[in-house]
Specification:
The chain folds into two domains: about 5-115, Nucleic acid-binding proteins (OB fold (Dihydrolipoamide Acetyltransferase, E2P)), CATH 2.40.50; about 145-440, Bira Bifunctional Protein, Domain 2 (BirA Bifunctional Protein, domain 2). It is about 30% helix and about 25% strand. It contains 14 helices and 19 strands. α6 crosses α8. The two termini are about 25 Å apart.
């Protein structure tokens, strides 16, 4: 990373080098390429983004913080045979140049090649990647993310993760880190990846749900971020077998409405921070800033089925929503509220995990999904918090409660009424940036066919 400002102030070059400049720190704050100061010289390291020769050789050097144009007489550096993507160090002297992008150039005094790029790369990171296939971009991921179009996706994704943590930490949530090797599934069903665990079988975790509930018994408010695994043989633009889940759970709630309101506030905070901190980046992908989520409506599942029948003649849905229904409901919500998002609560209980609390006595669940811009990005709800209710729910599904004894005993500790939700980070990223495929928002995607790189 670039030197801290206090170091720059103590070690900045002599005044004659920067005659007419603003203060050295201010000069670099708008384009702080990686630098190591000496008394009068500058050492810059990075990748060759452009190299052209004529009467003067121009080399554009780029690193994680910006770029600088360097110049030299052709004969002085021709022996290095610089080409795109070479990792190099240049020592030179800074000179004001109004025609340069940064307003300054670096006169090259010395070049050191740190490592050369290959001769036959399928693309370079400084060109238009529209003609490069998605598989090639994944196979050469480090090269792809040097390109701002690709790299910015993951910079924004990192910001989403940071703002998620910020908001919850401010609300007295404690971050927990739990095991991804488990003895049984949490969501039911058979969609588990089996792992040989010495002399027995273990599984990759579908969800940190049980551990989040244990966390509620200990900390009251907890969150976790980490990978989860689903052995589901999907081959769609919205599914992965491994994805990064943003999970939270908290106690002493009155119902799922408390959980929904927290998510409204959480997403509004995240979106507001992204709008302010990444406005220029966001404008490359969206025409409008991200909306406030405080007024996103909450519709009962049965009402949604009724709306779909009335507005779209959908008579094929009974116990769940398909992708087309999710898009249609978001269209209706946008007409009503101006926001392409809606919470759907009250799904059929039998279609939800055994730990889900019922909603009344009609067979509905205190469980919800958040649909955002036509895609479900969240599942959450209120959980059962009494041991006897959990044991009854397990027996009702033909499951022996003794198989879950290590989990159930945590409900003998005075477990409060609680609930939470999980957001798929890759889906959220893809929806924010209007990416057509979730793999574009996944650094190294895993699906039923892909295990490398």
């Amino acid at each position: 990373m670039a030197p801290p400002q206090s170091w720059l102030q103590q070690n900045s070059p002599s005044e004659e080098v920067f005659a007419g400049w603003p203060e050295p720190v201010s000069a670099y704050s708008s384009n702080p390429f990686l630098i190591l100061w000496t008394r009068k010289l500058l050492s810059a390291v990075g990748y060759v983004a452009c190299a052209s020769s004529g009467k003067t050789t121009f080399v554009v050097l780029k690193d994680c913080s910006g770029e600088v144009q360097c110049v030299a007489a052709p004969e002085s550096i021709k022996e290095h045979h610089l080409k795109l993507e070479d990792a190099i160090e240049i020592v030179g002297q800074v000179r004001r140049e109004a025609r340069a992008k940064s307003g300054y150039e670096l006169d090259i005094l010395e070049v050191r090649v740190l490592n050369r790029s290959g001769q036959n790369l399928p693309f370079n990171s400084f060109s238009n990647l529209d003609s490069v296939g998605p598989e090639t971009l994944i196979e050469y991921r480090p090269l792809a993310v040097r390109n701002e179009v690709i790299g910015n996706v993951f910079r924004l994704q990192a910001a989403l993760l940071r703002f998620f943590r910020e908001f919850l930490t401010q609300r007295r949530f404690t971050e927990i880190i739990t095991s991804k090797l488990v003895a049984s599934g949490t969501e039911g069903g058979t969609n588990l990846f089996e792992v040989k665990y010495f002399d027995r079988v273990a599984y990759l975790a579908q969800s940190p749900q049980f551990y989040k509930e244990h966390g509620v018994a200990g900390f009251e408010r907890v969150f976790e971020t980490g990978h989860v695994y689903r052995a589901e043989p999907h081959a769609t633009s919205r599914h992965l077998t491994e994805y990064y889940s943003l999970d939270l759970e908290f106690g002493f709630i009155d119902g799922p409405e408390d959980v929904i309101q927290l998510e409204r506030e959480l997403l509004t905070y995240i979106f507001d921070r992204v709008n302010k901190d990444s406005a220029s980046l966001l404008s490359l992908y969206r025409k409008q800033p991200l909306p406030s989520m405080l007024d996103v409506p909450c519709w009962e599942f049965e009402k949604c089925l009724e709306l779909l029948r009335e507005r779209f003649n959908r008579t094929d849905l009974t116990d769940d929503l398909d992708p087309e229904a999710e898009r249609q409901l978001c269209q209706l919500a946008e007409k009503d509220t101006g926001i392409s998002a809606v919470f759907v609560v009250g799904f059929p209980l039998l279609g939800r995990p055994f730990y889900t609390a019922p909603r009344g006595t009609t067979g509905a669940a205190n469980s919800f999904d958040l649909l955002f811009q036509g895609v479900e990005i969240t599942t959450g709800g209120q959980r059962l918090h009494r041991r006897e209710d959990l044991e009854k729910a397990l027996r009702g599904r033909g499951i022996d409660p003794t198989n879950f004894e290590s989990h159930l005993r945590m409900f003998d500790l005075g477990m409060p009424p609680h609930g939470g939700f999980a957001i798929g980070l890759e889906r959220l990223t893809a929806q924010i940036l209007s990416l057509p495929n979730i793999r574009q928002a996944t650094l190294y995607p895993r699906d039923r066919t892909k295990l490398t790189p």
